[in-house]
Amino acid sequence: MALREVLLVALATLLLRHARSQTSNGEQVVSRDGEDCLSQYAAPATVLAVPEEVVLVLGNSGSGKSALAKHLSRHDGDMKAVRENGEFFIEGDGIGGSIASVTSVPELFHDNETATNYFDCPGFEDTRGPCSEVTTTYYMKDIARHARRVKVLLLAPHFAVRKGQDRSDFLTMLRHAARVLKDPAKLQQSLALVVTKVEAPVVKRNNYDGYGRVSSDLVKAPDSDVRSGVEAFLSREVRPFLAAMAEDSSVQQEERTELRNAVKIVDILLLGGVETRRHGRVSRIGLFHAPDEVGALGDIEIMRNGRAELLELVQGLGYADVQQGDFGFSVSARTKVFALRRVQQLNEDVVAALGVLGQAAKNQSASAYDPSDIRASQERYAELEKKAADVARHLKNSTDVKEFCLRVAVPEDSSVQLADKCAILDVLQVVSEQPVVDHAVLATTWAAPMDSVTEYLKEKKEWHSFLLSLYQRFNSYPVQLQRRSSSTPFPSSSFVELPEFAAEAEALAAFAATGQNLSDVAAVVSTASRGPKTRCVGDLPSGGHAVVEGETVLLSEAVAAARNSCAGPLQLLEVYALNTVFVDDTVRLPSVPLVVAAPRWETLGSPTINLDGEDGEPLGSAPAANCSGERGHDGRPGNPGGPGGVLLAVGMDFAGNKVRVSAKGGAGGVGEEGGAGSGGGGDGGAGGL
Ligand SMILES: *[C@@H]1O[C@H](CO)[C@@H](O)[C@H](O)[C@H]1NC(C)=O
Ligand SMILES: *[C@@H]1O[C@H](CO)[C@@H](O)[C@H](O)[C@H]1NC(C)=O
Ligand SMILES: *[C@@H]1O[C@H](CO)[C@@H](O)[C@H](O)[C@H]1NC(C)=O
Ligand SMILES: *[C@@H]1O[C@H](CO)[C@@H](O)[C@H](O)[C@H]1NC(C)=O
Ligand SMILES: *[C@@H]1O[C@H](CO)[C@@H](O)[C@H](O)[C@H]1NC(C)=O
């Protein structure tokens, strides 16, 4: 572990202990829960689609955000009013009766009619521990990153904004809002307060009939009364309290900034109405009534009318142009500490997973190896090494964890779970607003397994290059000559003891240390030092057909071997070398068709391949005359010379001098001498070709 990491862990432990000792015994359980939760934390699976234009519905948990967002966007088909213990409630999917039942994922509701996107944001209050805090913050940052024009609805239940009530619920909401909305001035035309669960107070109304009699009934106070009550609460209770605290020098600077922001928000809410097209100015304080009868929400008059008014308000607001930096979504210091610990653990997991992938890549590369084809193996390893080096370079060039992970190809059949871990790291990175694994660690520790794969393939490539050079050395003329002339078995693995192989022996020792397969050497050497095999196919008294095959063939050796293998005279000789044929001496094969095929030809000195036909056999003398004066017998014509041979040569590389090839027909034999006449001589015959 690097010193820096050690320090980080020490710091985290210290902070954690501090966080624990600070809390009272009841809270300590929460801390431990938090740790457990982050150790099993799974990255949020939902991917938010954030439109550029959104209405953010913000407020404490349980303030009715979901109900409002669904109701305004006409997604309230499932919502109905029920009555319990004399009170009316709204029920519906995702609308929690209890505070903790709400999701951490912001939910988007699109209203077709007004083309408005409502984001039902998770509640401000952090009652659900670090994990939901992390997820919530991650999503809200996502919204902040993508939304470009926003309106903001702050929600507060009616009971929390009434004179004489406990102010803490509303103040909590305001202070969260002040932290999140870093620049309230931008929201001057875009911010409204929606008071939810409004149960208008019932007032007694006296009716006077024309005869001076008075009757009375109970009626709901008008909405304007509710609004003025809220305005009074804001201006007379909330604002002075916040303003005083913002000036209190015993309050920390950061908190005072936040308090001043809260005051600005209150000021905007108190600005008065917003201009609307149809209804002129409407109040910035919207009312979301509690139902006053049971049934589907759409059937309840007070809800229908209320919605129309709220929609007017939302339409009346203008969208504010915002940037990511206008929002301050962040996790608490305590959650940051948990996150840091989780990062350490994930970092180790990811490094281990990358190691397994590296090993798998090495295993996979074994398919490049073919002991029977060293050259092809060498080429494949060279190609793989190049690819691995490219991948390693690409990985090291990643700017962050997410990019790095996206660049790692995990084979489908692999059990390695990198994506999940990377996703969590990315979430923790986003919420902690700093790189969780710094670039140097990515380029070293994280990229190390890939570097190791590259190094491994490079060794394999070099080993095969060495085997190839060893093979070539054993196929060279001096070694082949030595093989041919050696009476003792040619040295195979024991060659390392020969002084002329000192360099090879040294290289071999170095390779052995890297765990290369030394059996390859024996295989290569025995292949290259195996002399050619000669067969006589079709051996007839009239002549034989010989085939010589080997890695490397000395032509003089092949001719001698062929002659030995066939009993009759050679009619045809085929020589095949997989590596080289050395034309090492002049060979004479009168009239024999010769086939030589080898990828490489090398000539030593200036040899000739002589396939000339033999000359015709000379004849004796014709019988002499019996008696004087008679003619002796005529001499017979000379014998024909042998036909010239044919050479079929196949090769690609040719080294050394040009080979001289001669394939003339043999000269005709000399004609028979005429018999001695007792007067005249006989004529000689003509020689054949
Ligand atoms: C909104 O409009 C689209 C297409 O115009 C339609 O498919 C969708 O069902 C509508 N949604 C609602 C909730 O009315
Ligand atoms: C690689 O091969 C070794 C030896 O055959 C094996 O033990 C190991 O599990 C393999 N690793 C992977 C990741 O495939
Ligand atoms: C590294 O990344 C930068 C920016 O993404 C790119 O311009 C550069 O070509 C990359 N280098 C390599 C070696 O991939
Ligand atoms: C080692 O080399 C020999 C000869 O080339 C080969 O037959 C064998 O399969 C190799 N062993 C391994 C483990 O690759
Ligand atoms: C000489 O006599 C022998 C035997 O009688 C005979 O075969 C031969 O042809 C004769 N030679 C000549 C030139 O007549």
Number of helices: 18
Helix content: 40-55%
Report strand %: 15-25%
Note poorly predicted spans.
Answer: 1-32, 679-689
Structural class per helix/strand content? Answer: alpha/beta
User: Whole-Å distance between the termini?
Assistant: 92 Å
Keywords: Signal
Question: What key attributes describe this structure?
Answer:
689 residues; alpha/beta; Rossmann fold; 3 domains; seven-stranded mixed sheet; 24 strands; 42% helix; disordered N terminus; binds 2-acetamido-2-deoxy-beta-D-glucopyranose; signal; P-loop_NTPase
Written description of the protein model:
By secondary structure, this protein is α/β, with parallel strands linked by helices. The chain has three domains: 50-331, Rossmann fold (3-Layer(aba) Sandwich), CATH 3.40.50; 333-530, no CATH class; 533-618 and 637-662, no CATH class. Helix content is 42%, strand content 19%. The strands form six sheets. Strands 1, 4, 5, 6, 7, 12 and 14 form a seven-stranded mixed β-sheet that branches. Strand 4 and strand 5 form a beta hairpin. Helix 5 (168-180) packs across helix 7 (253-269). Residues 1-32 and 679-689 have low confidence and may be disordered. Bound molecules: 2-acetamido-2-deoxy-beta-D-glucopyranose (NAG) (5 copies). Keywords: Signal. Residues 1-21 form the signal peptide.
